[in-house]
Amino acid sequence: MAKFADRVLQVLSNCHSGLTSDQIAQRLGTTTGKVSSPLSKLAAYGLIRRLWIEPGANARRKPVYGLVEKEEPAAKSAKMLA
User: Fold this and answer.
1) With bands split at pLDDT 50, 70 and 90, how would you rate the model's confidence at 78?
2) To the nearest 10°, the Cα dihedral for 62, 64, 43, 36?
3) For the segment 14-55, what is each residue's pLDDT rounded down to a tens digit?
4) CA atoms within 13 A on the CB side of 44
5) How confident is the model at residue 69 (pLDDT cuts 50, 70, 90)?
6) How many CB atoms lie within 10 A of CB 25?
7) Engineered SS bond to 30: which of 7, 34, 43, 80, CB 3.0-4.6 Å?
């Protein structure tokens, strides 16, 4: 995985409530456009999740990104058998 994607994952690992792409870019000292592609790829690989949060009345809807929670192997197996 590219070093930049690793930096994105590190930023997200320090914020359990998730961050917008603007917040991630700010913490990395770059632009939102630079983090857009890595975020999409990390989400496609299943390493991060993208949640859409409904904003207030006059705000634009933006995704919030966070790390995917890893399940314990026993819990995952139990779900498969159910």
Assistant:
1) very low
2) 50
3) 998 899 999 999 999 999 999 999 999 999 999 999 988 776
4) 7
5) confident
6) 20
7) 34
Beta bridge partners of 66: 49
In the chain, the domains with their CATH numbers are 3-81 (1.10.10.10)
The DSSP secondary-structure symbol of 19 reads B
Q: Which residues pair with 53 in a beta bridge?
A: 62
Amino acid identity of residue 48, one-letter, is I
What are the respective helix, strand and coil percentages of the chain, to the nearest 5?
Answer: 50, 15, 35
Distance CA 11, CA 30 (A): 13
In sequence order, what are the residues at sequence separation of 6 or more whose Cβ sits closer than 8 angstroms to the Cβ of residue 52? 61, 62, 63, 64
Helix (H, G, I), strand (E, B) or coil at 12: helix
